[in-house]
Every structure is written in C-alpha cells, then in structure tokens.
Recover the amino acids of this structure.
C-alpha cells in the first residue's frame, strides 16, 4: 500500500462560482481535481444543460493556471428525461460563459453527432458524456466520440448508478468495466464513471490522483471513494453555512435580551 498523502486542491481552495440544481453536485470536488491532475488542453462536454459540471471544469482551468479550452455541446431543447424547456436556460449559460470565462469556453448549440466534424481524432483530453441516459444513447455517444479522445485521455460518464426510468448508463458502463483495462466508478450521488483510454505517454511521473484512480490496490480505490464522499459533504456543509451567514447578515442585529440594536438613543431608552 502506498504511503503517499494526496491532499486534493478542492479541499484546499475550491469555492464553486456557480451553483444551480443538478445531481452533478456530488462530484464537483472530483471534477475540479481531475482538471488539475490531467491539465487538459481540450475538454468536451456532451450535455451541458444548466452548466454545473461544465463551469466547474472551466473554473479549475483558471484557478490552476491551465492553458486549455472547454467546448459544451447541447441542443438545449430537452429530451424525454428532462422534458422540453425554453431558450432561457441556454441564454443563462451563454451569459455566464461570456461574463466569467470569455476566451476559454465555446458553446455548440447542436446535436452531438452534428458536432463530430468540428473535432479531429485524438485531440480531446477530457470527454464528459451526459446526454440522454438510455443504454442505446450512451452507447452511441461513446462509440462516436471515443475516436476523438487522445490515447491516455479520460472519459466521464454521469449517472452510472441511476437505475430509474429507462436509464441505461449504469448497464453500459458495467460492460465497459469488463472490457476496458482502466476504469473507476464513484457510487455516491447518481454515480460517476471514469475511463482512461489506453496508450499515451506513460514515461513521466503520474499524478497522485491518477495513480489512485487506476490502482490495482482495491483498498486504495475504496479509500479514494470515501475521500470524495467526504469532499462532497464538506462542500455542501460549507455552502449551507455561507448561505445561513448571508441570511443572518441581511437581518437586524440583536442586542441584549433579544432587543434590536439601534443608533437612536431615544429608541434605546424606550
């Protein structure tokens, strides 16, 4: 067992700059740390919706001084799992990208297959698959986009523990774990699958996070899962604490006996 200590950047300094409702919230610390670990020049997300995971990737690029770009591909029309929605979600995402990540974000408002021709083979360092979650859709997205991933690149699969409706990401990722040499699955939240494409330059010392992700030591892998369960709880607890502080700051300050403090002497004597 390794005696190295890995202290993730997310536990040192990560404060999400965008928080919107999404089941991705449980994996934000890992997303932040993965970017720091692989330092991707090109990240592609298939299925952006309201941008929680997408903008976490972007934030990590900036805060860890990484020269890279993020492409978000989505039709922003909804699907059978999310139902249809209007253009306001896309406009909100586009505004946030323009205001905070101008120059490193590119939003491609189109279907995934339409975007394929915009990318050369073996150029994507990090691919995130988070579109329609049926077995057939996830299989199609992986099959079509896998050639775009460079050897040694990372592919993420969201909702690999969600066995609801006709979701099939869990079943497809189970199959990949049987056929691919390097995979990892986070079980908390709705689950997140991690796959590393074979090949690439393995001569340089490997980042500690990648060592742990693809270790053959099951105890190390189990502890890494526990670490990111704790990290997600810590992030949520800190977010709630900050929210309560903000709410308290908006109210009147209370003096002794619960009386409202005021600078008016006459009011204090009343």
């Amino acid at each position: 067992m390794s005696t190295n200590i890995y202290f993730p950047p997310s536990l040192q300094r990560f404060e999400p700059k965008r928080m919107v409702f999404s089941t991705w919230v449980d994996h934000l610390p890992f997303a932040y740390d993965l970017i720091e670990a692989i330092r991707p020049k090109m990240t592609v997300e298939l299925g952006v919706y309201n941008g929680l995971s997408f903008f976490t990737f972007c934030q990590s690029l900036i805060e860890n001084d990484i020269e890279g770009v993020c492409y978000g591909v989505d039709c922003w029309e909804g699907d059978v799992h999310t139902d249809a929605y209007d253009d306001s979600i896309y406009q909100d995402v586009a505004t946030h990208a323009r205001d905070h990540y101008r120059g490193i974000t590119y939003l491609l408002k189109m279907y995934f297959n339409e975007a394929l021709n915009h990318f050369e083979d073996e150029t994507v360092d990090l691919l995130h698959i988070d579109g329609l979650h049926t077995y057939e859709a996830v299989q199609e997205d992986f099959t079509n986009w896998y050639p775009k991933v460079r050897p040694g690149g990372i592919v993420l699969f969201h909702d690999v523990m969600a066995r609801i409706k006709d979701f099939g990401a869990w079943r497809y990722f189970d199959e990949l774990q049987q056929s691919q040499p390097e995979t990892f699955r986070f079980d908390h939240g709705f689950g997140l699958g991690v796959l590393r494409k074979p090949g690439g330059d393995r001569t340089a010392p490997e980042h500690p996070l990648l060592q742990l992700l693809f270790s053959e030591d099951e105890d190390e892998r189990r502890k890494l899962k526990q670490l990111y369960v704790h990290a997600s709880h810590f992030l949520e607890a800190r977010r709630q604490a900050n929210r309560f502080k903000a709410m308290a700051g908006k109210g009147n300050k209370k003096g002794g006996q619960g009386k409202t403090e005021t600078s008016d002497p006459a009011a204090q004597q009343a």
